[in-house]
Design brief:
The structure is a homodimer.
Chain A lengths: L18 H24 L6 H8 L3 H7 L3 H21 L7 H17 L11 H9 L1 H23 L9 H11 L4 H8 L4 H14 L12
Helix pairs in contact in A: 1-2, 1-4, 2-3, 4-6, 4-7, 5-7, 5-10, 7-8
The structure holds a DNA duplex (18 and 18 nucleotides).
DNA sequence: GTCTATACTGAGATAGAC
DNA sequence: GTCTATCTCAGTATAGAC
């Protein structure tokens, strides 16, 4: 078995032994970049390995030297995204409040989406889900991000910034779901708003809802 | 061309000329019922005409006497849903406030989803989108529902129930998106909550958001 | 390891008997 | 109009030369 993703956790980060290895790794990054874009545009089922190869500028067969199946390629794509999210979570300014940090993360993911780099994978594809759960790096990264987010939500509740009348998973999924929300595309497609405005809108409804706040009469 | 959906708007509702016609129409209902279920479970790309035919208990070829393509079948499925939504909107108690009516609609769509009857169609499939937009009944129903919802939102804003600091389309899409929200499936899959609870949670976050309302000290 | 060429399969759509 | 059987093609994956 020669198809081991150079991004897999087996190889310690930064360990590059030769020039050819380095080139191989760079090509893999290019594949994942293109995959992210195509997954965002077409979705998993409609992205073909043919067009992916064409987009990268390599032969289709070469893809299978990097990833042993389309599913595992998608898993690698998602894993890289999760790692980036994790990395962002870890480097956020500690003085920021939990709510601000959650907001910043949501803004970042929506910006990635606006840039066409957000690989949205269908939850209805059993083969894909199985591949995801069977890919070591993916489950690890998912667990790490999930845990970090849950902590952030709990801190937000304790700090009185987030509602305490809902279970933590509900809040967690609510902010997560907003990053895949189809209204983002609809609002952008309408052409009425800038990307920044759309992101503002979505963050606003996510945290403050659609209803008019009951802040009595004064101020606003 | 003999494949004209008996649910198409060309035939006035209630016009049934013969027993065979009636049987044909009933079978078409059965096809759409099964299609809704499979579209909800598997999604458009993964639903095969083979398994749909098997689920209905008819031959695959017979499907094409009712619908000329998989895309148009999906369009008919969505159209029927939109018509039901429209019908519900029209029969809602007039004394209910706009917010309550929007809430009731969201609850209903989520209940449909819980029952596995919600056909979720991907927005990333160009062939499908083209078929949708080229299907007369679909565009009509979509327009009618969109307009009715926009009116409801506007009334909600005027009544002071919904936020006035966001454009109407933003609120409209926000409530719409909630009915396709993947967190619904995740929360149900966790097994921690009943379907009713999950629906309550999603309605709550949709209208009131994740943040703790600032009603602490009186008058801000 | 990358290329070109190809095998294989699943699935949408059609043909023709009844 | 419904059935069985078949066509066609896109797309994943692999073989083999270099």
């Amino acid at each position: 078995m020669t198809t081991a993703s150079s991004l897999s956790p087996e190889r310690p980060a930064g360990t590059v032994r030769s020039f050819r290895d380095r080139q191989f790794q760079l090509r893999e990054e290019a594949i994942l970049d293109a995959a992210n874009q195509l997954l965002a545009q077409r979705g998993f089922e409609l992205m073909s390995m043919d067009e992916l190869a064409a987009a990268v500028g390599i032969a289709k067969g070469s893809l299978y030297k990097h990833f042993e199946s389309k599913e595992q390629l998608a898993a690698a794509s998602m894993t890289r995204l999760l790692r980036r999210i994790e990395s962002r979570l870890l480097t956020q300014p500690a003085q920021d409040s939990p709510r601000r940090r959650l907001e910043a993360l949501l803004r970042w993911t929506l910006a990635e989406r606006a840039a066409g780099r957000m690989p949205l994978l269908p939850s209805t594809n059993p083969a894909l889900q199985q591949a995801l759960m069977g890919t070591r790096g993916y489950t690890e990264a998912l667990g790490a991000v999930g845990e970090a987010l849950a902590q952030l939500v709990e801190q937000g509740i304790e700090a009185g910034e987030l509602r305490s009348d809902l279970p933590v998973p509900v809040l967690l999924f609510t902010v997560y779901a907003r990053s895949c929300d189809p209204s983002f595309d609809f609002l952008r497609a309408s052409g009425e708003f800038s990307d920044e405005q759309v992101i503002d809108f979505m963050v606003a409804t996510c945290f403050d809802g659609m209803a008019r706040p009951r802040t009595g009469t004064p101020a606003q």
